[in-house]
Amino acid sequence: MKLRSLAIRSIASIAAAFTPSVAWAHAGTGAAADFSHGFLHPLTGADHMLAMIAVGILAYQIGGRALWFVPLSFLLFMVVGGTLGATGVDMPHVELGIALSVVILGAAIAFGIAAPLLVTMAIVGIFAVFHGHAHGAEMPASTSALGYALGFVSSTALLHLAGIGIGMLIGRIGARHEPALVRAAGGLMTVAGLGVLGGVL
């Protein structure tokens, strides 16, 4: 329980550190606008949101050190992908990689796949590069890269927290039914991911 609490606080601290716009009343111009563009980008696509929430649920499901290492791996590699996208480095099959991230992460949750922590971090990191590349490539030309990056890192961290929170909420419903409920959530994500792949979502 202490590990989970520390992990949640760590991710929350990252989100808080990267969320200066909370103190800005107006987000029309300058740094506030740059941050806002980045912050909103992961929230404008169901594929991004589902994958990032899935990372949080998966981290909760694995537990222990994975609770903070898995989300942090996603955040770090997402920045790498964002840098590639923002600097114009071409990366093939980005949309396919994003859609597959929802399918595979959802399936991992649904089937309770217990891969070694480093393997899980690597898989999550690979998917994060695709998500980050999409964020960076779609950055408005007049936007500050730093402010934009801080924005999408912040919203992603919050989505990870939401996933962890969903896992905890399910846990509070009842330990007896928790595994089945978590796996059901993963199954729904897998179906949604297939919908993204098929162009339905």
UniProtKB/TrEMBL annotation:
<keyword id="KW-1133">Transmembrane helix</keyword>
<keyword id="KW-0732">Signal</keyword>
<keyword id="KW-0472">Membrane</keyword>
<feature type="transmembrane region" description="Helical">
    <location>
        <begin position="67"/>
        <end position="86"/>
    </location>
</feature>
<dbReference type="Pfam" id="PF04955">
    <property type="entry name" value="HupE_UreJ"/>
</dbReference>
<feature type="transmembrane region" description="Helical">
    <location>
        <begin position="150"/>
        <end position="174"/>
    </location>
</feature>
<keyword id="KW-0812">Transmembrane</keyword>
<feature type="transmembrane region" description="Helical">
    <location>
        <begin position="41"/>
        <end position="60"/>
    </location>
</feature>
<dbReference type="InterPro" id="IPR007038">
    <property type="entry name" value="HupE_UreJ"/>
</dbReference>
<feature type="transmembrane region" description="Helical">
    <location>
        <begin position="180"/>
        <end position="200"/>
    </location>
</feature>
<protein>
    <submittedName>
        <fullName>Urease accessory protein</fullName>
    </submittedName>
</protein>
<feature type="signal peptide">
    <location>
        <begin position="1"/>
        <end position="25"/>
    </location>
</feature>
<feature type="transmembrane region" description="Helical">
    <location>
        <begin position="98"/>
        <end position="130"/>
    </location>
</feature>
